[in-house]
Design goal:
Helix content is 37%, strand content 24%. It has 167 residues and is α+β, with helices and mostly antiparallel strands.
Length: 167
Amino acid sequence: MTRKALRYDSIREAAADCLRHFVREATVHSRKISGPEDAAEFAVLTILAEGRQERENLGLICLNAANVVVHSEIVSIGTVNHAPAYPREIARRALLSNATAVILFHNHPANQATPSTEDLQLTRHLADVLGHLGIQLHDHLIVAGNVIYSITAARTVEIAAPSRTLF
């Protein structure tokens, strides 16, 4: 066994570290987001790598003018049915990464992909706030098991086989 292998307390911790590395590498290698399917895949990987699937995680994918990922992260981890969303923090992270556009995402641990009234209000409010800063909100995705709902496209996006769930 190598020294690196000895520092992990569990297989889950080692797998999470591998996913974190994969997400960082995908960002470093400038992955282009061309639609909700690409964004959904990146959102799921970010939640798996950095988040806690049993709680709501709010995340952000920051893009440059060519829609290439320049940064992604989990912004907040909340309770089983709410994650705090602070427009100031979201704007700060987007500005620090020199993003011209962002994609917001969060998971619903109960696997209900339908956006709530609060989800829709947050989307409108953030689009307005970020727009004043010259940053476009491309989408707000809701991750619910194998189904991801794109608020902007007003449709679901499936990225995994129906027989398996991602969380």
